[in-house]
From TrEMBL:
The chain crosses the membrane at residues 15-35, 56-76, 88-108, 120-139, 155-174, 181-202. This is Integral membrane protein. It comes from Phytohabitans kaempferiae. Keywords: Membrane, Transmembrane, Transmembrane helix. The keyword Membrane applies.
Length: 256
């Protein structure tokens, strides 16, 4: 394991990224454990920070840690790998605290324990998945194409690289508009998923479905009906499994 870590992470210059990733994971699980203890009313747990009656959300501390880690990371000599990794870890810890309250920031109201609050968990999962792939050395195809264009050199090579990168990015956007967030994001790393996501029907509540399927006419009605059948048959069982996993990690949301 130590040899793998040295060859895969240290020798490739990804130690700072790994530190960010590990700290973000630890920070998320740590803050979720803390909030669940507070919610359960455990007496010996420190509880909320409420100086003078003002409740301070942990995203505030996260922003502070991100500023400290980010500014320190820019200021440190690039050759000081160890200290840059420490700064990256501080930034990752702050990112976890901010992302854990992503839904509150998005909606500008306290929805932490509501169904809408699950958007925070999704944001953390997305950040961890993307960062984990980067730690393992898997780059988005868009970046890979630009690197190849730089290696080939010349105006034609750059034009081809930029065009292909823009094409893949457009497919990813379209896939997300069809309600397939994970397919669009992971498809940036494995483009074959983007082609599948673009070809298949959109999910019935996605922006694409609202634009294309919720219209008068027999053909849009047939597509909407097929999308709803697929949603019930395939997506809803996966969504229920995801809900159980989120409940296990982040706690069950309040009932409306």
């Amino acid at each position: 394991m130590g040899e793998w870590f040295r060859h895969t992470i240290v020798d490739t210059g990804r130690l700072s990224l790994f530190s960010f990733f590990a700290a973000m994971m630890v920070g998320f699980f740590g803050i979720r454990f803390s909030t669940r203890m507070i919610r359960a009313g455990v007496r010996w747990w420190p509880g909320n920070v409420t100086p003078g009656g003002l409740h301070i959300h942990h995203a505030v501390f996260g922003i502070g840690l991100m500023l400290i880690g980010g500014i320190t990371g820019f200021a440190i000599d690039p050759d000081l790998t160890g200290w840059r990794s420490v700064a990256a870890a501080v930034f990752g810890l702050g990112s976890a605290l901010v992302l854990d309250e992503f839904a509150l920031i998005l909606r500008l109201r306290d929805v932490y324990w509501s169904r809408e609050g699950r958007e925070s968990v999704t944001a953390v999962f997305v950040a961890c998945a993307v960062t984990g792939l980067l730690v393992l050395g898997v780059l988005p195809e868009n970046i890979t194409e630009l690197v190849r264009a730089d290696d080939r050199g010349g105006l034609a090579g750059w034009a081809a690289g930029i065009a292909l990168a823009a094409f893949n990015l457009g497919l990813a956007v379209l896939t997300v508009l069809k309600g397939k967030l994970w397919t669009g994001l992971i498809g940036l790393f494995f483009p074959i998923l983007l082609y599948v996501g673009v070809i298949r029907l959109a999910r019935p509540k996605s922006p694409w479905a609202r634009w294309r399927y919720h219209r008068p006419g027999e053909r849009p009605a047939r597509k909407l009906a097929r999308a709803q059948r697929r949603e019930e048959r395939f997506h809803q069982p996966v969504a229920r499994l995801g809900d159980r996993l989120s409940n296990l990690i982040a706690g069950r949301p309040d009932q409306a």
